[in-house]
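Margin note from the TA: students keep mixing up input and output lines. Inputs are the sequences; the output is the structure of the whole complex. Example:
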Amino acid sequence: MRRLTYAEALNEALHQLLEADDSVMIIGQGVTSPWYVGNTCVGLIDKYTSSRVIDTPVSENAVTGAAVGAALAGMRPILVHPRLDFMHYAMDPIANQAANWYYMFGGKLSVPITIWGIINRGGEQGAQHSQATHAIYAHIPGIKVVMPSTPYDVKGLLRSCVYDGNPVVFIDDRWLYKIEGDVPEKRYSVQIGKGKIRRKGKDLTIVATSYLVHEALRAAEELAKKGISAEVLDPLTLKPLDEDCIVKSVGKTGRLLVVDGGWTSFGAAAEIMARLAENEGILEIKAPLKRLALPDSPAPASRTLEKNYFKRAEDIVREAAKLVR
Amino acid sequence: MKKLEAHLPKGLEGLARDSVMLMHQKMVTIRMVEDLIAESITKKEVGCPCHLYSGEEAVATGICANLRKDDWIYSSHRSHGHYIAKGGSLDALMAEVYCRQTGASKGRGGSMHLSSPEIGFPGSSAIVSGTISLAVGSALAFKIMNTDRIAASFFGDGAADEGVFYESLNFAALYKLPMLFVCENNLYSTHLHISKCLADRDLVKKARAMGVHSTSIDGNDAIGVFKAAKKLVEKMRGGGGPEFLECMTYRHRGHVGPNYDLEKGLRSKDEFKEWMDKDPVDLIERKIIASKLATREELDAIREGIQDRVKTAQKKGFNARWPSCGSDSAFVEATWRRRE
């Protein structure tokens, strides 16, 4: 099958969505800049009208509100925030308006908006150019959160988000953009709320999110050399979480390590562990449930500190080995 | 027709009798609804917080009289007047104030969250300045869709304390959107006088600085509001870009609830009296009588009819059933499959 990078797959998804449906629009900072948001938006402004490909001033709050208002009026906006750090400015239209609108008015109008936020960190960028805030959004009722990790899934999930009918926060990671994978040319959807087993194993389950799926797969290779068979599970959607998939896997392996790129306390990993702890389907656990996420401190700049702060395959190997020992 | 107009006092020329009488009817309806709700709050029948619109009726009425059903207006926590002026159902409003299943938002919203998309009222939000950017976005959508619909947001002077207000003005000006910013300047942001919120109270100047054409008018004169809005709406439909309209007005009651905030010393009795003398409902009635569109007796009969309708809606709402538990979902499920 044809190979594309993650960024190319995302670009193809955007082209196909804008081409097929006049109600789809993309709005946000940098969509017509010479960098095209990590090349994901290449060619859009050349092919489609500037009223549906809108590069905006840095007014995150108003621009997000405008995208919500356009969605209410019948558009299907894809709103891009090139860094999740900047999306904090947009919390009101996301958490107060978009998230509540359908419920608060008794189901009269829904908000079919895709809020695409990008994790962009490393390279000594420091605390305000590093944040992975997916758990914050997953906490809010009325918001779905997806974190596609492969070129195939990013193309299919973007389509599902645009046509979901609800506000979906779609989070990717610049560290994923050069990863290659098989991507069909046709249009297709990947279902929101379904996890995938990326590698089968029997000794422990590693649930990893977004970019860390790839680190977890590298870790599983290493673990295999040590005689440990790790199953790698990619939830793809944080909310609604595919609890069945996780329960089934941990029911089989008896051990869980959650690896997440957000902060540790009250994070995505905590929620996944809590779901398992509450689940009556699992009767036998062979080791304490364990998580590996960022320390509860802001991201550093210095590369020596960064190396310790962000988690990699070797950290996963170390934690996993402790559980199986 | 010319002959009739010669009799009209200054300011009523060119307005059809029906338009004036319809505005009067809307304004009286709003006033009576708010009075009845105030009474019901005092009796502890209403549970949710209510921000009453009494005293500001001319703004919503004068503006909405120029809008079509498919134009969209967004509102704030003080939303009853806008909802009624745009043509919202009284039964649904009263039931929502009582948080009943038959309410405009099925009891999920309460007084601050009314919605009626079929009349161009997508919703009202309780976050100050919260719907301004939403209205701007709907105006953007109307423009992308090549329609001549316009969007409006009603907000108070307190909204000018928020950053998103300025961002939204700039955004609407930048893309020349058919967006009407309606600022109901009632001099207070919750308990705090505008002089304690804004170093510079000239909102027209501020909106103009963002690139939006701006006007300030007497917001208690419904006829004046109607005429100003008519001009602006026509301009916007013709692609003239956004407009900012400041309507100077006054809320009779306090920020929230049935009281008048006088006993707490939040505003002076002199100021209150000065504005009560400029009551918008009184004003339109005096104009109607002076111009012989109707007599006092005829107006009283109209009032009686409205009172009956409002009371019926109130009773119906109060006696309606409560929402039942267990059927709530924050999501629309898979609507796109049907569409595709």
